[in-house]
Each structure stands twice: as structure tokens, then as C-alpha cells.
Amino acid sequence: MALGRGGTFSRVILPLLPRRLAATRATESAQPPEAVVRIPWALRQRLQRGVQRRRRGPGEAAATRPGKLLLRSRRPELSQPIWQTVGRWEQPQLVSAGWKHRKSHGDYFQLEPSQEVAPALKEPQDDTVQGPSFTEMGLQPALLTGLEGLSISRPTAVQRLAIPALRRGRSALCAAETGSGKTLAYLLPLLDRLLACPEKLVGAAGPPSPRGLVVLPSRELAVQVSAVAAALCRPAGLQVRGLMGGGAAGGLRRQLRAAPPGPAVLLGTPGALREALRRRFLTLERLLWMVLDEADTLMDETFLEPLEQILAHAPLSAGAPGPTGPGEPRTQMVVVGATFPAGLTETLEKFSDVGRFVTLTTQSLHRLPPHVQQKFIRVKGKDKLPELLQLLKERSASSGSVLIFCKSASTVNWLGYILDDHKIKHLRLQGQMSADARAGIFASFQKGDVSVLVCTDLAARGLDTSSVQLVVNYDFPDTIPYYLHRAGRVGRVGSKVPGAVVSFVTHRWDVDLVRKIETAARKRTGLPGMDSSINKYPPKGG
Known about the structure:
This protein is α/β, with parallel strands linked by helices. It is built from 17 helices and 16 strands. The protein has two domains: 95-117 and 369-523, 3-Layer(aba) Sandwich (Rossmann fold); 120-361, Rossmann fold (3-Layer(aba) Sandwich), CATH 3.40.50.
């Protein structure tokens, strides 16, 4: 039989197939294919967790998720493994979500370190070799000798970023995370410019006139940076002086005593600098560069008026990033900090052209330190003291130093009396003490004479605490920036171990900040509200 047009072939084949299969194929060929519904991965995981919870008995605990954890919770089902990501618009399930309830006391969660070294010590990811060394950056040999004396051989991320830009004479806003090496990031290039532009001495007449000026908010920080600057300048023969208040006018004159025409580099606090300028013990006519360190603190109302008077004496009117022609004097300004308040630009615009500043920021700015363990414990106010005492007694003598932060000077004194009763050797540091007493206390703590320091936020900014391995927030800070500054006392460049932070969360308003911190940690994003103005600071006595 010859094959006809389709019909003949069908008549031959169909009888050979089972009737049910033939009918099914005929039906499928007549109907359009069904649409495929795909369920998002996150929704599938959420539904699966719900099924698992229903299958478990009432007294049966959930199994901890496999793999390394980013966040460890007392309730394992709320732990987050390091491989899990949370979408930008997704609201993660928070441990601290129910912490305003009275039954939440005793709950806790812990942020685990996600990397071993500080972000400042990580090499550039786009290079197959290590970043440039200090020698390759072209620094003066005398400064390299000074670095050897400080046992520093490897530049950090902010130093690799800032040194080339500042060596070119650029005025800059330099922002980097705490403990990242910002002091050397501005001292090295600015001292290099000083050595590259020697100035002929005209005469010894007139008050001292430095060529470099660093303004710092506290006496402790000024002493610390002065020691670093002196070590760098000693091989080059440059004179460095620190100018701190707290004494009579004759004390200011003695601090400025140096060979004519005065110290090459001056470091001072706003009040002392303003008083020296007012009494004409000091002029800024020869100023080649100026640094405002810890700028967010200098913008506080306590320091703003003296700071503006200092800026008015400096030759900043041109406001250019660097000399545009031979013989044209310019003052290079560098503003340094871990956070910048919104009012900073308005203040600087009164004296300089901020629009021509270059902005230098690191990738880890405004982020939680990824190499530091951070634990948050929900406790009642009456339970904070037993928790602290247990924490201190469990630590061994070789566990490094401890910083205990309180909100007020009165709490520091009260807590000190309690530690005395328990035979725990410690030091206290708060703003109501005299300047000389404060300087001696922090120096003793840095030497390691005593390993426990009870303090206010006076010790939260800028100070070198590389020996500290534990920070305890006995009173939770009022703002997220203050939490970052406190946490930055551990895991610093030069620290032997990353250290840890333990925070006691007591009040309902503390919970609001903890929720923001936990959300940022789960999403691996920067902390919210860091770019806004920080106008509220603890009282000066605190």
C-alpha cells in the first residue's frame, strides 16, 4: 500500500498503539503546555524552615546550621551562616526584635569574626603583588629611618591612599575607620613636604612661627601624636613641640621654647592654641600645612569657637590645593576623622575653598570591624555589675588590657569603688579630673602597669590602645558613631590579637541602636546615620 497524505499513515499506525496511550497523546497535542511556576530560593528556604519547626516536638531544639557562622544566636534558628546573604530590600529576622519585652532578659547574640586581619592591613585585591612600600612611595630617607625606629615597615590601606595625594600638596578630607593608621597617613607626607621645601632663616626676631600645625581635641591625643611626630622628625633634625593648656601663661611660653624661629611642627589643643595666639606667643605666618585631627570632635560646640579663631590666624584665604606658581604661599589643610559631621563644610568654607579639597575614604569606613568578635547581652540594670565582675574574674593575667566604658564620671567613680571592694586593680579616667592627672593615668595604662581602665568616652577617640584585648560597654553608647569608636579600641593596627567587644543592653532606647547594628551586620552593609551631623555629645565632665 502506498503512503497517502497523512491520513493513510495514521490509519496504519494507530491500531498498533494501545488505545489509552493513543488517546493521551492526542489530548496532549491538542492542549497548550502548562506554565511553570518558580518559587524564589529565599521563600523556599523559609517554607522549609517552617515545615521543620512543625515536625519537631515541643521540647526538641533546632539543629545549628552547618558551616561557619556570621552571627551566633542563643536561639540556633536565628543564627546566620557566613555563606547566607540577605537581600538589600529584605528584612532579616532579628534576634533583638523582641528585646523590648521584659521576658527577653538573658538573651544574646554574637557577631563572629569573618576575617583574620584588620581591613587596613589587607593588600589591594586588584594587584597580584603587595602594595607599594614606604620606599616606593618616594618618602625622604630621614623619614624611612624614623619608621624603622618605630618598627613600622608595611603601609596600611589609608596610608597607601593618602600619602601620594598629600605629597602633591592637595588639601583633603581624609576619612578612615578607627585604628587604621591615620596618624602616619597624614604625618609622613606632610613632613616629607616640609623636608622637600627647606626655608631660609630670616632672623630670630618675633614669636615662634611653626611651618606645620596639628590641632587635636584632647591632651592625651596630643601627647600621643607628639611622640610619633618626634620619632619621625628626630633623624631629620626637625623640632617638634606640643602645646597643651591647663596651666598659667608662662607654661604656654615654656612649651613653645625652641631654637629660632621656633619649632618646625607644633601639635596642640584648641584652647591652648587660641590662648597662645591671643597673647602673641605664637604666629602662623609661615604655616605650610595644617591638620585638624578627630574633626567630628573639633566641630563640637565646646571646641568650635577656639577652632574658628585659630583658622582665622592661618593664611588660608587662597584655599587652593597647592601652589599654582613659584613663590605663591599656600597653606595645605588636611581634615582627618572616622566620621564627618554635616556642619564641617560650613565651618571650613568661612576660611577656605572646600570645593577644591580632594576626598579620601577607605572601603571599610562606617562598617563594623569584621575581624573583631562583638557580643550583645540583654540584661537588667541590676545584673550588669555581676556580669562584669564575672567577666573580669574569668580573664587570666595574660589576656591583655580591658577598657570599661561608662556614660558619666559619676558612674566611673561608683564602679571604681565596687572594683576596689572586690580587690580588682584598676585605673579611672574621666573628664572631671585635672589635665595632669589624666595624662599620668593614661600613660600608666599604656605602659601596662594596670590592665583595667574604667573610663568615659574621653578614651574612645584616637588614643593608641593596641594592648587592649577586651572592651566592655557597661553603659551602651548613645549613638552608633560612639559604638564604632569604642569598638575601635581593639583590633587596631599593631595589636597582637583582634580582641573582643561585650555590650550590656539595658534600656529600651539601647535596643533601637542594637537593631540597626544587627541589621547592618546581617546585610554586610555600612551602619546607618553615619553621614549625618553628630551634634549631641556627652557632657564635658563626662
